[in-house]
Amino acid sequence: MPNTSTPITLSETSKIGYGRRYNQFVRAVKRRIAIRTGQDKAEVQITPADLVDFVIAKKGNYAPNSWRLVRASLVWSLEEMALQVDPVSAQMIMDQVERLRRERADPDDDRDAKTSSTKAKKLADGDLALIEQTALEQRSKYKQHLVLYLKVGILTGLRPCEWPGAALRHSTRDGFAWMLVVANAKATNRRAHGSHRTLYFAELDPQTANEILAWIRIARSGRYQRLLNTIGRLLWKITRELWPDGPEWPTLYTTRHLAVAAWKAHYLYKGQTDAERLEALATIAAMMGHGSDATASQHYARANAGLKAIVPSADPEEVARIRRIIDLNWFGKLIAGDDTPPAPKVSP
């Protein structure tokens, strides 16, 4: 019989929670091996040693309480497995259990502080593709809705709640084929530059234009809020399967951060004059629907030159309304890749 240090009796809720965490780690290990070896994920076989190696390697990401929960989940699950196999296999499993028990919490000194905020503001292109691929493998009938939302959200930077009030039209401005007119969500509390904003696209291929139009139709339906909740939960499930030990995970709002990062990479660059930089920041703030370019740099993701995206243009009249109150020296450090820029000095 396995010698267990976990509670003798666990509630059904605890058992479900332990099992869910264990399965998340199993899927993460299989996915990592599949990517490394080129195997189909369904064909990957892992051993208890593979699992324990993976978890121990991630130990530094956890605060002491979190590590104890992770360890207890795996110990209990492995002990349950040991009860169902032959004695030799059981001993191999228990060897890994004992190894895991000896691992004490040891959080990295430079580990990001764990807070109630776990929303990711950035995402690598490969991670985004992995989320979409994993979504399409799900049984959920809303998987296509999630993938569609991610595509149009990253392109436009709209808040989830702004889609019902959006309209894609042929552009009335020379040099642009399409314009997306959006009712600003922050207009009522004076955080927006006006009631609406307009994003101009020099060109959109027919599929992309149809995807935007399709999501607008969905957003105007009576079930839109329920749909957002559903695909939000699906994204939550997928990202925790992909990165069970991650300090933060993308949400539906992450698409806005990714769009802004692409816009910063396009409009802001080294060597700009102060006037050019102020104009660029005002352009970004206008496309975000903000009333000042300070908010564009303080609250959103840093520039991401690696993000491949179609970048829209702002309405010149809207840009002219943006209040210019930002400390450019601070923002220069921000877009240069400084991970810990000093706090901005913003004039009243």
TrEMBL record:
InterPro entries found in the cross-reference section: DNA_brk_join_enz
**Name used for this protein in its record:** Phage integrase family protein
Which superkingdom, per the lineage? Answer: Bacteria
Molecular function GO labels:
DNA binding
Q: Which residues does the annotated region (Disordered) include?
A: 100-120
